[in-house]
Amino acid sequence: MYRLNSFQQFKLLPFIVDALTEKRITKPTDIQARIIPAAQNGRDIIGKSQTGTGKTLAFLLPIVEAINPEEASVQAIVVAPTRELAWQIHEELKSILIKNPDYIKSSLIVGGTDRERQIDKMKNPPQLIIGTPGRILDLMKAQALFPHKVTHFVVDEADQMLDMGFLPEVDRIAQSLPEKLQTMVFSATIPEKLEPFLKKYLHDPRFAEASVEHRVAPKIKHHVIPVRHRDRKELTVEIAKAINPFVCLVFTNTKQEADELETSFREAGLNVGTLHGDMQARRRKQAIKDINDAKYQYVIATDLAARGIDISGVSHVINHGIPKDLDFYTHRVGRTGRAGASGEAYTLYEDHENGPINRLEERGFEFTHVDVRNGSIQPIKTRRRRQTDRKMKVSHTAHSRMAGEIKKAKKKVKPGYKKKFKYKLKETASREHMQQQRSDRRAARKKNKR
Fold first, then answer.
1. Which segments show compositional bias classed as Basic and acidic residues (predicted)?
2. Which residues constitute the domain of residue 92?
3. Which of 10, 13, 108, 431 is the most buried (most CB within 10 A)?
4. Contacts for 258 with CB less than 8 Å, ≥ 6 apart
5. CATH code for the domain of 188
6. What's the rounded Cα separation, in Å, for the pair 353 and 348?
7. Which one-letter DSSP state was computed for residue 339?
């Protein structure tokens, strides 16, 4: 059985390879192939990778291999920004230890649970702790968790840690750890404000980024739908009905939009759940359980709330709005098309949002242009990107030049100068557009002669 599993190249424990094979995980993803050997050699790691690329196994497998099961002390700490993500990592750990569950002892240390009970558990310390930074730091301060023998430290979703204001707590945990330490940091993006932390705690790190093939999944079809002065909520509901998904994730840019959209979905009779940061802990926990139990056909979520939550069976993604940070687009659409399956993503846009779509196309995403007509998704004429961009560029150039001339002569102009300015601006823009066309034709002729 192991002969068919290429994870054997990492010389993993046989029961781990057995568990991976049972899960039908037989070939390392790009990020796993890059990170596991470096981690096994003791290198510090910076992994730039979105969800769905297999990064959790990339750090769990070498850590489990490195832990001494005979030593009853905390040897590895994994911090995650949310309870749900910490729980998910812990579940992944249990799945790879399923053939030998008593090999090492682990604990899930998160807020929203009985603190005294967790302190009591630390009396017989686990070898591996997975949790949120606040509760882990709390147990350290209470002198219930002793980190002096920790040899491995993982920070998952570091950019989200930064966004949620948890990085100072992570910093205090790192300061309490031994100097001889392997540190691994994983993040979908590497913002500038994260760099001081990386320079402070990582020494000669191995940088690994998921390849383009993993970042732009080939089996996901990307569609854009123009809003065209329609009500955006009503249009999103129409799309949701038309696609008839197995499970559809609907992303909004704000918590308020998520709540309003949930109301619209319920009024339309759709089976919907919602996930965002303002939900109370108990309600949020129940929502996660209901989502994992596949009780909803539609799940409305904000980016930070859904970050790190693995929802199985997602066949479609709808972007109610284009994310302000375009890196989140990759993260959103990566929720579908998992493990080689196909998926579809629909993004609503206004006319003034052509720029972000153009930039996504430059990143390798290919969009088809569709709309909802008579209850079904139908193709429409592709927007004229290049001509629109050129006209905007020419108009901007002409406007800048004319604005300068008007400013210089502003005090001397006669009544009606605004009308004359608009006319002259239009004339100049038209002239520059014609010059640009002639220049393009000349360049084309030269190219053909070559």
1. 424-442
2. 2-213
3. 108
4. 252, 274, 275, 276, 300, 301, 302
5. 3.40.50.300
6. 10
7. G
